[in-house]
Amino acid sequence: IRAYGFLSDLDAVWATWREMMAQRIAPNCITLGCMVEAVANNGQPEAGLTLIHQMLAHEETRSLVNAIIYCSVLKAFSHRKRFDQVWAVHDEMRAKRMQYSIVTYNALIDACARSGEMSRVSPLLEQMSKDGIEPNVITYSTVIKGYCQDNRIDKAFEVLED
After folding, report:
1. Half-sphere exposure of 121 (CA within 13 A, CB side)
2. Short-list 155, 128, 132, 133, CA closest to 144
3. Does the predicted TM-score (pTM) go above 0.85?
4. pLDDT digits over 25-34, tens only?
5. In contact, 32 and 64? CB cutoff 8 Å
């Protein structure tokens, strides 16, 4: 699934998934993550989100879904400038009490920079701190990039100085 996704062969991605289901081969979190990433990165983030919802709907597969898998969908919506969907998925993840990682927060901060919604950054950074996650160089560079794109060089320098 991952290889077909890398090759942008969505027909083969879906055929492999359907064959797994037909053979009653249960996905694990790695398989599900590869599948969601393959479809999301190849122009079908809605299909990735639908797969997540399908897994959440069944008790035997619910535990496979995590923030890393959701993150593929977040990034895909962000890269397609579907920011309404980014925030809807973020709200869904929070409602489901997904455990965020630095990658999740960095994807959300990148969405802020891409959309020009830098007012969302401070609350995200505060939540990161509450979650015990330290910003990294990617976090800071993304925040600085966002403020520079927003013509708020003063805020970018504040981040650098902090």
Report:
1. 26
2. 155
3. yes
4. 999 999 999 9
5. yes
